[in-house]
Amino acid sequence: MWIVTGGAGFIGSVLLWKLNQEGIDDILVVDRLESSDRWKNLRKHHFSDYIEADDFLIWLTAGKFSKIEGIVHLGACSSTTEINGSFLIRNNFEYTKALAAWALAKNRPFIYASSAATYGDGQFGYTTDSQTTQKLIPLNIYGYSKHLFDLWALRRGVLKKLVGLKFFNVFGPNEYHKGDMRSMVAKAVEQVKRDGKIRLFRSYRPEFKNGEQRRDFLYVKDAVGVIWNFMKTPREGGLFNVGAGHAQTWNDLAKVLFAALDQPMRIDYIEMPESLRTKYQYHTQADMSWRKAKNRAKPFRTLEEGVNDYVLNYLSKDDPYL
Q1: Helices (H) and strands (E) in the chain, counts
Q2: Which position has the higher pLDDT, 90 or 260?
Q3: CA-only gyration radius of the chain, Å
Q4: Span 188-234, pLDDT tens digits
Q5: C-alpha to C-alpha distance for 146 and 153, rounded to whole angstroms
Q6: Residue 230 main-chain phi, psi, to 5 deg
């Protein structure tokens, strides 16, 4: 049995879809449903059981589960605007340490979600080698909570026994519960339907024109394909970026989005809240050379292919869930 924490979340629920496609349904889903719509992400997928996250950790350490093949730990608060540091440390750092310690003690694969937010403003680049990792300065407490675990595993010499995945700008179906943390694709489709235009933040750096801030966009179906490959080869370890490997601008995304909606492109460039201006990333681009080195160079979907699938097959439907 595989454990998938955060299994009712965005990437976690799409991983369930991928595992079901591969004929796997012996899965224990762990999450915190609370009062959100995350439960809707589970309706179309098959798994053996569900348990709330706090109960799971108690039961796991008490030895209530047997025959666990491994843990895919995607359960965390992913809000880059969350400011409750104590909550993030408990939820994103301490919880991850507890699960990793169990997996290491039992010699079970442990795949966990790190984040591109650990790279901060990108001044040290976007590589996952140990020297770079120790230099990184995240711009927000969310990124720092993720970075702390990377450092914990690195300094204790166990990182090569784990798989840490630094997800970049992942978008796609089942992200609807994330509110303001949804991808720009999901938010922009709503804006176009309502106003006929989308809103992008102005640039506050002279080297970037409005809308020319750059991101590494990756469709969620490709992101879970990366996870699945590591589940099949559980003895690989280390930190790995998960992105397309090239950056595109918000204006590029807008162009693709309006084409998918068959609408003329109209953009309003709006002021960025002052609280975000010192924490905003102007350029992110994953170093994905590891895929070629591991002979995993099958191309990901292009931005156009991903947006078209998302818009036409999900966001345009009455039931947009995968």
Answers
A1: 12, 13
A2: 260
A3: 19
A4: 999 999 999 999 999 999 999 999 999 999 999 999 999 999 999 86
A5: 11
A6: -70, -30
Question: b/e string for 291-306 if b means 16 or more Cβ within 10 A?
Answer: beeeeeeeebbebeeb
Token digits of residue 254: 């807008």
Considering 88-92, 267-271, 274-278, 294-298, the range whose residues carry the highest mean pLDDT is 267-271
3-state secondary structure 139-198: CCHHHHHHHHHHHHHHHCCCHHHCEEEEECEEECCCCHHHHHHCCHHHHHHHHHHHHCCE
User: Among residues 18, 146, 166, 178, which one is catalytic?
Assistant: 178
DSSP 8-state symbol, 272: P
- Ranges of beta strands (E only) in the chain are 2-5, 27-31, 49-52, 70-73, 110-113, 163-167, 169-171, 198-201, 214-215, 217-219, 238-242, 248-249, 267-270
**H-helix or E-strand spanning residue 120:** none
Nearest to 174 by CA among 246, 249, 224: 224
User: Which residue type occupies 195?
Assistant: D
Q: Is 314 a catalytic residue?
A: no
Q: For 41, phi and psi rounded to 5 degrees? A: -70, -15
Specify the amino acid at residue 229: N
Angle at 303 between CA 174 and CA 36, to 5 degrees: 15
Quick check: is 50 catalytic? no
The residue whose two tokens read 């996250």 is: 53
Place of tokens 């804006």: 191
Task: Give the C-alpha separation, 261 to 153, whole Å.
Answer: 45
Phi, psi of 286 (to 5 degrees): -70, 135
Residue from 93, 140, 145 nearest 120 by CA: 140
15 residue type, one letter? L
User: What rounded mean pLDDT belongs to the chain?
Assistant: 93
Residue 188 near residue 244 (C-beta atoms within 8 A): no
Dist. CA 25–CA 19, nearest whole Å: 7
Contact between residue 234 and residue 265 where contact means Cβ atoms under 8 Å apart: no
Of 112, 142, 176, 219, which residue is the catalytic one? 142
